[in-house]
Each structure stands twice: as C-alpha cells, then as structure tokens.
Amino acid sequence: MKRWLKWTLLAAGVVAVFLLLRATLFRQKPIEVESATAERGVVEDVVTNSQAGTVRARRRSRLGAERAGRVIEIPFRESARVRRGAVVVQLDASTARTALELARRSREVQHASATSARASFDLARLEHERAQTLRAQDLISQGEMDQVQARFEETRAALAAAEAAVARADASVELAEDDLAHLRVTAPYDGVIAQRLVEVGESVVPGQPVIEIVAPDSLYVSARIDEVDIGRMRDGLPARVTLDPYRDLTWSGRVSRVFPVVDDRLEQNRTLTVEVDIDPDPQKPLPLPGTSADVVIVLDERRDVLRVPAFAVIEGRRVLVIADGKAVAREVTTGLRNWEWTEISGGLEAGEQVVTSLDKQGVRAGAAVKPTPRGDTTPAP
Fold first, then answer.
1. For the chain, how many structural domains are there in total?
2. Less Cβ crowding at N or C end of the chain, within 10 Å?
3. What are the tens digits of pLDDT across the range 249-288?
4. Are 170 and 176 in contact (CB under 8 A)?
5. Do residues 118 and 229 both lie within one domain?
6. Is 266 helix (H, G, I), strand (E, B) or coil?
C-alpha cells in the first residue's frame, strides 16, 4: 500500500512539473499583431479614377493687347485675385492721352461754332417770318424778300455744317477715348492671375497674349472611370478631389458631366470620362489647370454604423477577434465597404478588438496574440 502511494505521489509530481514548465518555459510566445477597435462612424461606397485626372478650367483666357505699345505697368502677380474690369496690364498711353486732349479741345471749338451758327439761324428765321408777313401786305418788294430768303437759307446751311462738325468732333473724341481704353488690358470676369506672359518694358503688338486669367469657380477635373462602374455614375454625385502638389489637402466637388461614350481605344482598359466641378475654397491654394488630380466619387454613405478597417475582414465574412490573449475567428455580416472601412451589421460589438495584420506569419484562429495599436509595431521590451 505504501509503495502504491509512493508511485502515485511521484507521478503527480511529474505531471505538476510538466504543467508548470508548459505554463512557463515552454509556453507559446504571443505574436505581436496590429489591431483596431470596432467603432461607430461613417462608411462610404466610392469609386475612384482608374487613370490620373487633370484639372481644367471652363473659363481660362489668355488676354491680348488690342493696340501696339510698351508695357508700363502690370499691377498683379500670379495667384492674385482680380475683379471684372480691373486693369491687369497697362501700355504707355502718353500719346493717346495727348490725342484725346486735342480732340476734346477741337470739340469745344466746334460746339462754340455751332452755338454761333444756331444764333445766326434763329435771327435769320425771325427776319424771314417778318418778311413773309410784310410781303403778303405788299409792304416790301420781291427783291427785298429774295435777299431775306437767301440769308435764311445761308444760315440754315451754316448751322447744318456746324452741327455736322460737332458730330465729327464728338466721334473724334470717342475714337481717342477708345484708343486710350484699348491701351489697358482688363479682366473679363472675376478671376485669378494664372500667368504673366510679358514684363514691364516689353513692347507688344495687337493680338499678342500678355496675361492669363482663370475663373476659380469654373475649375473641374476630367477623370477616367473604369467601365465596370459605368452603371453607377450620374450627375450630381458628391466627390472629393486631391491634387498631386497638395496631397494633404482635399477639395469638395460634384459630378457635373458623365460622358455618353466609352473610350475603347485600349480594349483591355476601357474607361468612361467624367467631369467633377471643384468647389472654390479661398482657404486653399488655387488648383492650377493642367495639374494631375484624383477623384473619389461617393455613391452611397452611411453614418453612425459599426465599422472596422477593410483589411481586417477575411473573405468578406469573418474577422479574428482578440479574446483572452488569443485570436478567435468570428463570422460577421457586412454592409457598405471601401478600401478603408467595412460596415459590420452583425456578429461584432462596438469596443471589440480585431486583428488587422492578417498577413503576419503565424496569425490564425487560436494563435496567442499580443495586440498593438495600428501603426505601432515597436517590439515590447
């Protein structure tokens, strides 16, 4: 009996040592994994361009000089905002101003001459009326009547000539004013100076482009969408725009045009062109026409839904939940998704942690894991 008890105690001791070693020295070391917490937020169904888009402007003008001359002033630099009618390039107008002054002086002379001619005509008209009355009463001779008639006709002709001279003088002033005005290049609409094509001191000829202006409220992105998404495109869909020079900034926009024809020049990569209007934002740099751009077109949006990172979902139907230091497979029901987030409509609760580094070696259901926040992969000491 004692011998049996001795072997029983010895076996129990061996088992206890084995279990102790398994729980300490031979315990499986947890795998450090990136994790994310299931949380409530916004999930969108989106489409992006398959090829780089390009910023364009519906109103983009290269303004030219209408008269030859030397540039004496360019009041605005690139990126300056200007109002419609603002002078953006001024040519030397000294000769034109002198010509205008001479035309105005000449007009004053012609107006004075016309005033004198009208006074003479009015007097001759009165004399003619009196002479007609006297002639009817046979108080003056026909010869005297003829002299009064001749003077009346002469003053009427002189008045007509004076009035024609006034009209000619007025036209000369208008022409001089027009010449002076055409030595100024003005903005045709509210816009932004995109490029100065000449500098002060340069001589220009009629029609030569001197400055480029862009209307900031007319900017849009022309982008190509893969043909598989054609059926979901329509005017008015909200969109977001990012530009290569400003990757950290986003402009809001809206689909304004969906082309009716698919581009099939590349049979293996057929695309549909869409245009996305960019909403003006004075707090951001002005997007320059010709800049590369990407668009994200929002087809659907759901707010305040449970979501997890898209790359935490396996085959679209399960996740690895971290529970008691292990990765536990969990079937889930999904809804909207994009490359960043997936909506979870069933199988998961807010606050639960899911594994996001699914490609890490050894990560599978049942594996011991140690979570670290997303982006923090520094080994624990």
1. 4
2. C
3. 999 999 999 988 887 776 667 888 999 999 988 888 888 8
4. no
5. no
6. coil
